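S., here's the first fold you wanted:
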Amino acid sequence: MNKKNQKLLLDISTYILLSLGAVLMISPFFWMVATSFKLPADQFSMSLIPTPATFQNYRSLFSVDLNFPLMFFNSVTISGLITIGQLLTCSMAAFCFAVVKFKGRNFLFTAVLLTMLIPFHVTLIPNFIIFKTIHLTGTSVPLWLPAFWGGAFGTFLLRQYFLTIPRDLVDAARVDGASLLQIFWKVYMPLAKPALAAIAIFTFQGAWNDLLHPLIYMPAAPNTTLTVGLAFFQQQMQHGGQFTVLMAGAFLSILPLLLVFFFAQKLFIQGVTLSGVKR
């Protein structure tokens, strides 16, 4: 067997393995969607085509004591604020580490990266004590306010992307009399759309799927997030057996993530790819 045939056989084997892996990963998603359209009597069937299909599960989702619209609104609001906070603070910190020259810049950047080694469970109790002392527990403020303190991952990713932008643009803007704030906002931010899209998707996904923090700071339903509400609803459904309604809620809960990724996937892939290249 010559090298050309060996390469062809290797490519075919690789595609087959990747296709099998994709089927295994996406099958639970298809089963969830199919179950959301099934009758309660068919909820444990393995068929991916519901016969007959019904929208009663989605109507029941809005009729139960879950208050799905309020929790959906809370999740969208909190996740949006967290995403805005991370984009704003991480981009400013990354601009300083990539463009502004000051004494101890590399040491400070290393110290920021070292914070990624600290598990968030370590800071969970101190943060809770702080927010309880200032009487913010039971509100959404402890969920989105820390996002405006910055983050090591977003700062690192954006700094790496900022380093790929030619330094000549900064010099040209300086000659034209632009300040650092103007250079940041009018030069670097428009050019960093791919990296910003990557950070936005990562941040929004993490905030949307977060269960622990809303459960600690906003445990009272229905004034909580969708993840906590679905977790409580799952416990109730284990006794009632209406898993079709639960699958309908789970499907609606992941729609925002799918929409965000599909609309920004090109910028997301470009941002992740270019952020690892240093000029």
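And the second, which I think is the more interesting of the pair:
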Amino acid sequence: MACTQCARLRRYCLEVAQTKRKAYRNDAYWGRPVPGFGDPAARILVLGLAPAAHGANRTGRVFTGDGRGGSGDFLMGGLHRAGLASIPTSQHPGDGLALRGVFVAAAARCAPPGNKPLPHEVENCRVHLAAEVAALPHLRVVVALGKVAWDAWLAFVATSTPLPRPRPVFSHGAVARLAPAGTPGPAGLTLVGCFHPSRQNTHTGRVTPAMYDEVFSVALASRAQTTRTDI
């Protein structure tokens, strides 16, 4: 990806790639927008927040390389237990990780300062989300990791389909159906809310492996029940 829409994010990603973290001083940082990763035949889309400065911004693969026990390992552990990932960790692009039936992407494709993309930066990335969704014709379910991802998906759907009233509110385990089953396009997908697997959440016990197991159980059940026509 060679997108340059967000000057602030591009400056930050390149600065991080040049200064590096001491532990990764010998690594060649990716330093560019990070595309999604997974199974082209995926029925489940996992939508995260943004690449980590020394994680995906370094490795070039979403939710990859943010250290042992980081968000990538926590997410892949949940996907592995659900039968959707070949291994329970995500350390580097050559680690043998393969996703089955799931595709993982981020609402913002460039690492933001403080892990907080600005609203217009997420909006700028919508075109990339649209392109990936269009290339995944079998999608049935979207798992939004956190409120930013949840709101980004709602905003994406709203570009083509009116949202229901009241607007679905994010919470862990929330399930929203934005249009009747069989509705073509993104509005026909089931949306499932899930707390983000940040260290702040996982190391404090706000998020547990059992909570992720429940979310992916719901996603798998919704995957089997929901029907739609191709985008």
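Why I say that: Residues 227-231 have pLDDT under 50 and may be disordered. The two ends are 22 Å apart (CA to CA).

Talk tomorrow,
H.
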